[in-house]
């Protein structure tokens, strides 16, 4: 199951029906794959992507048990304990006590909230796209606490700290990842 995308996508759609949640899962999947390649984990790209795709498997149906119910769902589907730990650790401090340990888990923790913020910022642009978004525009939206208030800036900052990166590095890399995958995600959503 850990690298079988077709099975993972079927499982995701079994527990998530809202297009917003599907698009977020596809975005985090693609961003995680981008980071795997960028950070020298190309051989683990499928695993990184799978963690991104399934990270919110329980959120739509069990929001009060987010990152807790996921473990049962994934275990029942035959996922490895490594994948279960990765998925559950992305909610550290907000929806669970499983701390990110590996670099992949720290990236997932950092980019989950950030991809939401970037997606919201893109929707405010005339183009409705990240393609013409500059880092300076993203930084302005990040600093505006009223904008996309549900996206925790503290988690994003904490994620950058866990990775040992400057906040701007995390913002810039995640924006680049989203630019690289935006068209493919749009195509998948149109299917």
* Count of beta strands: 0
Low-confidence stretches: none
What best-fitting shape do the alpha-carbon axes yield? globular
Query: How many helical stretches?
Result: 9
Helix/strand class? mainly alpha
Fraction in beta strands: under 5%
SSE run:
HHHHHHHHH
How many domains make up the coordinates? 1
Percentage of helical residues? 55-70%
Rg to the nearest angstrom? 15 Å
- What's the average pLDDT? 95
Largest sheet: none
Question: Distance N terminus to C terminus?
Answer: 23 Å
Key structural traits:
9 helices, single chain, mainly alpha, 191 residues
Summarize the structure.
This protein has helices at 5-15, 19-38, 45-54, 69-76, 81-89, 103-123, 135-143, 153-163, 167-190.
Could you characterize the architecture of this molecule?
The protein is mainly alpha-helical and about 190 residues long. Helices cover about 65% and strands about 0% of the residues. The protein starts with a helix and ends with a helix.
SSE blueprint:
Elements: H1 5-15, H2 19-38, H3 45-54, H4 69-76, H5 81-89, H6 103-123, H7 135-143, H8 153-163, H9 167-190
Helix pairs in contact: 1-3, 2-3, 2-6, 2-9, 3-5, 4-5, 5-6, 6-8, 6-9
